């Protein structure tokens, strides 16, 4: 195990440490996604030799795990108020903020480190006052997390659409609705209604609406099981 920091004495180089390596890799991923992260590129970001990094992380998998845990450890855990609905809402907002800043984490699967474990512990504890069984608690947290993931992916797809076409979703639907056979003839009335009645995307409103639906389902689960 290397010391917390090392330096070869040459100017212009960042002293190596787990924190410095993680921060450099996170900067690369935030700018260019996970495909922009490699041991060579991280070393270049730090002004170090590639082989020096292997004293800290043995491979890219360990590097990815270090990146994810660094992000999670830096995100303050939502305070537990005892109001499960408010606490789950705060947890979802916290996760959404993390993925907005670091969208590459959506596709990162790595072993939990201290930061991740602490966050899981806090998340589980948020639902302890409900009296739900642990399987149900895990299921609820998974559903909340899936809602966050879906919202972030939708934001990303809308942003990609705008970059490639210059249009938002509403404008794109309006421009291409005439190309869909049967849409104008009444064959797909619900799709036509969706295009007519939905306005421009409000990501915050859409996310909060989806989350409210999930939380209503959790309330029904608690009532049905007699928990809480």
UniProtKB/TrEMBL annotation:
Keyword Protein biosynthesis annotated: no
GO molecular function terms attached to this record: DNA-binding transcription factor activity; transcription cis-regulatory region binding
GO terms (BP aspect): negative regulation of DNA-templated transcription
Keywords assigned by UniProt, alphabetized: DNA-binding, Transcription, Transcription regulation
Record-linked SUPFAM superfamilies: Homeodomain-like, Tetracyclin repressor-like, C-terminal domain
Database matches in InterPro entries: Homeodomain-like_sf, HTH-type_TetR-like_transc_reg, HTH_TetR, Repressor_TetR_C, Tet_transcr_reg_TetR-rel_C_sf
Pfam families to which the protein is assigned, alphabetical: TetR_C_1, TetR_N
Keyword rRNA processing annotated: no
Residue ranges occupied by any HTH tetR-type domain in the UniProt entry: 15-75
DNA-binding region boundaries: 38-57
PANTHER family, A to Z: HTH-TYPE TRANSCRIPTIONAL REGULATOR RUTR (PTHR30055), TRANSCRIPTIONAL REGULATORY PROTEIN (PTHR30055:SF151)
Entry protein name: TetR family transcriptional regulator
Protein's organism: Murinocardiopsis flavida
């Amino acid at each position: 195990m290397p010391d917390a920091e090392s330096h070869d004495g040459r100017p212009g180089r960042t002293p190596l440490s787990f924190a410095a390596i993680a921060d450099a890799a996170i900067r690369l991923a935030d700018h260019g996604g996970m495909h922009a992260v490699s041991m060579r590129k991280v070393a270049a970001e730090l002004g170090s030799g590639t082989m020096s990094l292997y004293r800290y992380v043995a491979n890219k998998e360990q590097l990815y795990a270090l990146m994810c845990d660094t992000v999670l450890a830096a995100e303050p855990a939502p305070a537990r108020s005892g109001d499960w609905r408010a606490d789950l809402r705060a947890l979802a907002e916290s996760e959404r903020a993390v993925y907005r800043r670091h969208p590459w984490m959506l596709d990162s699967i790595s072993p939990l480190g201290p930061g991740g474990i602490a966050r899981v512990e806090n998340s589980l504890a948020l639902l302890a006052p409900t009296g739900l069984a642990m399987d149900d608690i895990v299921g609820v947290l998974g559903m909340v997390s899936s809602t966050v993931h879906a919202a972030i992916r939708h934001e990303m797809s809308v942003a990609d659409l705008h970059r490639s076409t210059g249009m938002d979703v509403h404008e794109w639907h309006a421009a291409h609705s005439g190309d869909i056979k049967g849409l104008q003839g009444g064959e797909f009335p619900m799709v036509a209604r969706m295009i007519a009645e939905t306005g421009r995307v409000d990501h915050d409103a859409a996310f909060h609406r989806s989350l409210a639906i999930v939380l209503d389902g959790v309330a029904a689960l608690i009532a049905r099981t007699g928990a809480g």
